[in-house]
Write a structure and sequence with these properties.
With 425 residues, the chain is mostly helical. Helices cover 80% and strands 0% of the residues. The protein has a single domain, classed as Up-down Bundle (Growth Hormone, Chain: A), CATH 1.20.1250.20.
């Protein structure tokens, strides 16, 4: 049966195309440029990797703290789109401002601000999923978002890659070419967001009350209390905390890891471009497979695959091995992210999606903080980036165990949703 997207679904997917350009820049060109700035003042490769990891960790702490608060406020009628717009602008303007940083510490400071805007915007974007499509299309639309985000982000990335790698031939300095690259990504991000800003209407919401902010904090407190009573939701969040840790850490630090190993930067960028291209069909494939197979089994498959990837990364030493790693990541990256997002949407109440996605963000970003911090600390203590990366595998094992326990719960998602909707919030 032909799968036809609605206008609103297309608008929602386009934002993934826009914001994915920023995250691709963060995971590829940006660490190489930071390394360029760091080398100018004599930072070692181990310290370079550690400081990059610490910056990512600071970002996750900030967003983990603000995310559920903003998400709870955004569930109020008429609030979600305005707050989403503010976080979008913080991210895009911050991205453009990176092009003016010439000192490594200032660069990291602006990066934290831009990444916070990006990460916060995703809380509201993800919580919009239930408003833009029907329940039976959640898995497929979520997968389509990641799929088109991967392939669409290649357009500005190729332009940026041409500027950076060809800066000498174009007569541009590294600083100017990177400034232009940051501007291209920021403008692309904003342009792809316009259709969603125009077409989105908040369908599920909590009615506005006289003291909306205070009421939001009260609902947030009750949310933390009630989620413990919903075993399936609680166990999923716990499992998600562990397995998404490894996923985000690999995404955030792949290029930094390869650079620290002394691999050719051009080869690293091309390999990660291959990741995006491979991820496109595989993300769509997982969305289609969800029509035939249980979502929990597909998520389990993805976690197991990432465990294998983490083990493989420990022994990575050469360029061809990095290419293999990049292709393997591309095969499962979209599936695990898209299916986790849609699975969570199914087991939470639609009118409080912002609250719950804010809570999911604590687990995701909090886990990412743990992952990047562990890699950074282990690398500095051992003096080996391979040992630091090896710590990721343990978290995937824990994630698999807890997720299988969550999947074994007899309660159907619909039953959980009814229970949550009837909870005294």
């Amino acid at each position: 049966m032909k799968f036809k997207l609605t206008k609103l679904e297309k608008s929602w997917i386009l934002y993934d195309v826009g914001n994915s350009a920023f995250i691709l820049l963060v995971s590829t060109i940006m660490p190489i440029y930071f390394n360029y700035l760091a080398e100018k003042v004599g930072l070692s490769s181990v310290n370079y990797l550690a400081y990059w990891g610490y910056a990512a960790s600071v970002t996750t702490i900030i967003v983990a703290f603000l995310g559920p608060i903003l998400g709870t406020i955004a569930d109020t009628k008429g609030f979600k789109k305005p707050i989403f717009s503010v976080t979008l602008l913080i991210g895009a303007v911050g991205c453009m401002a990176l092009g003016f940083a010439r000192q490594w510490l200032i660069f990291l400071g602006i990066f934290v601000i831009a990444k916070c805007g990006f990460s916060a915007s995703l809380i509201f974007y993800d919580s919009m999923l239930g408003d833009v499509t029907s329940k039976e299309r959640l898995d497929n639309i979520s997968s389509q978002g990641f799929a088109w985000g991967y392939i669409g982000s290649c357009v500005p990335f190729i332009a940026c890659l041409g500027l950076v790698l060809g800066s000498g031939a174009l007569g541009l300095s590294m600083e100017i070419s990177m400034g232009l690259a940051f501007a291209i990504v920021a403008l692309w991000w904003l342009a792809m967001a316009l259709p969603l800003l125009k077409n989105y209407k908040q369908k599920s919401y909590v009615e506005k009350k006289p003291h909306a902010v205070r009421e939001s904090f009260l609902r947030l407190g009750k949310l933390f209390s009630n989620v413990k009573k919903e075993k399936k939701v609680f166990l999923f969040l716990l499992a998600f905390f562990f397995y998404i840790d490894g996923v985000y850490t690999i995404i955030d630090m792949a290029t930094a890891y390869g650079t620290a190993l002394g691999l050719d930067s051009s080869g690293l960028l091309l390999a990660l471009l291959a990741t995006q291209i491979v991820a496109f069909p595989f993300a769509i494939l997982f969305g289609r497979l969800s029509d035939k197979y249980d979502t929990t089994k597909l998520i389990t498959l993805c976690i197991c695959a990432y465990l294998g990837i983490a083990i493989f990364a420990v022994f990575l030493k050469s360029q061809w091995q990095f290419w293999v790693l990049a292709v393997l990541v591309g095969m499962f990256q979209g599936g695990i992210q898209a299916l986790s997002r849609s699975y969570f949407t199914k087991i939470i109440p639609a009118d409080r999606s912002g609250e719950y996605f804010g809570l999911l963000d604590i687990c995701g970003k909090g886990a990412s903080f743990v992952g990047t911090a562990v890699v950074s600390i282990a690398s500095q203590i051992s003096g080996s980036v391979n040992i630091g990366v090896g710590m990721i595998g343990v978290l995937f094992v824990i994630g698999i165990i807890i997720f299988r326990i969550a999947a074994a719960q007899q309660d159907e998602p619909e039953a959980n949703m009814d229970a949550l909707e009837n909870a005294d919030l």
